[in-house]
Design a protein that fits this description.
The protein is an all-beta fold and 209 residues long. It has two domains: 2-110, Immunoglobulins (Immunoglobulin-like), CATH 2.60.40.10; 118-207, Immunoglobulin-like, CATH 2.60.40.1930. The protein is 0% helix and 64% strand. The protein has no helices and 17 strands. Strands 1, 2, 3, 4, 5, 6, 7 and 8 form an eight-stranded antiparallel β-sheet that branches. A hairpin with a 2-residue loop joins β2 (12-22) and β3 (25-47). 25% of the residues are buried.
């Protein structure tokens, strides 16, 4: 949990502003003690590349305020950044009359996300009838966010005939593991192939009944 500086006391008295990181999901939480003429909060994010300064800010969402109230109010906003990097966040509080006030930033760091493609050897190998295949989809920065990759993972026999499709969908950056069941196949040598973006890799697996 990381905390940042607060707004000025008026017209919105912000008493807390924090970020909680779970995987690639960042949950922003903030709380106001009171609000006056508050239209809401614009949420902005920028890539933070140490030790240089914060990059270009972009609006990623808006949360409506409570208008005018003397009661405590709580807010949350979820942002799935998709990959490993350092990110900075700030709130831009907007009044109904057009006046805006910007908070200082809070920073979060997303770690444990691959930075290169890889296809690992299945385990166990030889196998009967199940084995696990692990692969990695890296973080690829596009401006200020990470893009998903279309991933194809297929099994082929020695003649090049496709015998199973294990994955055919978009995947966010991360480490994935999938189980292959070869109970309907005959014993022998097979190949599994991973295609994702420009990445292409093939490995051999042996079914031994």
């Amino acid at each position: 949990m990381k905390r940042g500086p607060l707004f000025d006391p008026v017209p919105v008295e912000l008493v807390s502003f924090s970020a909680l990181v779970e995987g690639t999901n960042v949950t922003l939480k903030w709380e106001t003690a009171s609000e006056t003429n508050n239209r809401g909060f614009e949420i902005e994010r920028a890539v933070f590349s140490r030790p240089s300064s914060v990059g270009r800010w972009e609006k990623i969402g808006f949360v409506e305020g409570k208008g005018t109230t003397t009661l405590k109010s709580s807010y949350t906003f979820n942002d799935d950044v998709g990959g490993a990097w350092c990110y900075a966040y700030r709130l831009v509080q907007q009044d109904y009359d057009g006046v805006v006030k910007t908070s200082n930033t809070i920073e979060v760091e997303i770690t444990n996300i691959p930075f290169e493609f890889s296809l690992e050897q299945n385990f166990p190998n030889p196998f009967n009838p199940t084995t696990k295949i692990r692969y990695r989809i890296p973080f690829i920065q596009t401006h200020s966010s990470a893009s998903v990759q279309n991933v194809l993972l297929k099994i082929y026999d020695l003649l090049g005939n496709e015998v199973a499709t294990l994955v055919n969908e978009n995947k966010a950056p991360g480490v994935y593991e999938i189980e292959f069941n070869g109970s309907k196949l005959t014993s022998g040598v097979y190949f599994y192939r991973l295609q994702a973006g420009k990445f292409n890799a093939v490995k051999k697996l042996v079914l031994m009944k």
